[in-house]
Design a protein that fits this description.
Layout lengths: L14 H6 L10 H18 L4 E5 L3 H12 L3 E6 L2 H12 L3 E6 L8 H10 L4 E5 L1 E2 L4 E2 L2 H9 L5 E5 L11 H4 L3 E5 L11 E5 L1 H8 L10 H8 L10 H17 L1 H22 L14 E5 L6 H9 L10 H9 L5 E5 L6 H16 L3
Helix pairs in contact: 2-10, 5-6, 10-11, 11-14
This protein binds pyridoxal-5'-phosphate (PLP).
Pyridoxal-5'-phosphate (PLP) binds next to helix 3.
């Protein structure tokens, strides 16, 4: 597989996984389908470290954002907002006519557990939503510390967006007491975009029974009813399920612990390189993401030009999250660029990518 995408999703997919997409189609109400569906369960439970159901949605991760909110929240929901994706999830809750409160933190900072504790103590919320790994700023928040806070508020459901961390970072769903942990296929899981996964606790289902207006496509209870029969309520993307089966086998062969270490190793190479080059990290010290690094472009490198030059060589460069950069530029602060080190990427590929970037930095316009 040629190294190409250094953006934080979609990420490159291994050829053996891509080939699974070309299998002949299959009726989704057949025994063969049910066997395929059931075969995914052990690997998914291991990936999420959970005994809970891991539902599969034919949508991207945003669909499961909506599923969690529409199925399990009648009204009051608290969102931690520390970047573009957590902000989008919060506005989704508002658009679903929920009584949404946002607890905001500066870009580049993690979610502060004490502030969450205080906010949850001040009002009765039904759920607390947090983005584990803010892809826009390369910040990872401490789920362990947040889980301790959630234990003090046992009536509040704990929803975690692990869209850009699951598969690259260990997340012990049951140990952390996460009610809904959701992820997209196209990031650290290195699958094609088009399905999303979520572990669902029993109490999330119980809560959903009391919520009206859950709709159909993203109703967790509809998904659960079908899941218990090894089916989906609607026609799913069967090619994605074959690909998922293959990728779960590949992850098992690599070893999940090894996979997480590989992500850490790639991240530390990038951070060491940034330091050596004199670029500060945009993310706060101690909260750097293992799957995507967000770096301050303090040298005013023309990343649009770098991107163009490397595109010609089949390498896709990330020029930073657009809205964040627009905001920083308006404040006359250095913009950012990101280096994704997730999914199939290897430390060697990262090292050669960094060397390529460096060569481009020396090119005079
Ligand atoms: C942290 C995070 N959450 C949610 C999303 C939205 O996911 P999707 O594009 O799969 O709907 C993204 C997309 O990049 C993301 O990075």
């Amino acid at each position: 597989m040629a190294a190409r995408l250094f953006i934080p999703g979609p990420s490159d997919v291994d050829d053996t996984v891509l080939r699974e997409l070309a299998r002949p189609q299959l009726g989704h109400r057949t025994q063969e389908f049910r066997e395929l569906f059931a075969s995914l369960r052990p690997g998914l439970r291991k990936l999420f470290s959970t005994g809970n159901d891991v539902l599969i949605s034919t949508s991207s991760g945003s669909g499961l954002w909506e599923a969690a909110i529409r199925s399990c929240v009648k009204s009051k929901v608290l969102h931690a907002v520390n970047g573009a994706f957590s902000k989008k999830w919060a506005s989704l809750s508002k658009n679903c006519a929920k009584d949404m409160a946002a607890l905001s933190f500066q870009d580049g900072k993690p979610v502060n557990p004490q502030a969450v504790d205080k906010a949850l103590s001040e009002r009765d919320y039904e759920a607390f939503c947090v983005v584990h790994n803010e892809t826009s700023t390369g910040v990872i928040s401490d789920l362990g510390a947040l889980s301790q806070v959630m234990k003090k508020h046992p009536d509040v459901l704990f929803f975690v967006d692990a869209v850009s961390s699951l598969g690259g970072v260990k997340i012990e769903v049951d140990g952390l007491g996460i009610d809904i942990c959701l992820a997209s296929s196209q990031k650290a899981l290195a699958l094609p975009a088009g399905i999303a996964l979520a572990s669902i606790s029993r109490r999330s289902y119980l809560k959903a029974e009391a919520v009206e207006g859950r709709g159909y496509y993203f109703d967790l209870l509809e998904l659960k009813k079908a899941y218990d029969k090894d089916e989906t309520p609607y026609t799913p993307s069967i090619p994605h399920l074959y690909a998922l089966r293959k990728q779960l086998d590949r992850m098992e062969a690599e070893g999940l612990e090894f996979r997480y270490k590989r992500h850490e190793e790639m991240a530390s190479w990038v951070r060491a390189w940034a330091k050596e080059q004199g670029f500060p990290m945009f993310s706060q010290e101690g909260c750097h993401s293992p799957t995507v690094s967000c770096i301050s472009n303090t040298k005013g490198i023309d990343f649009a030009a770098v991107k163009k030059a490397l595109a010609g060589r089949g390498i896709t460069v990330d020029t930073g999250y657009r809205k964040l950069n627009e905001k920083l530029a308006a404040e006359e602060k250095p913009t950012t660029f990101r280096i994704a080190h997730m999914g199939e990427r290897t430390p060697d590929e990262i090292r050669s990518y960094l060397a390529e970037l460096q060569k481009q930095f020396q090119v005079k316009p």
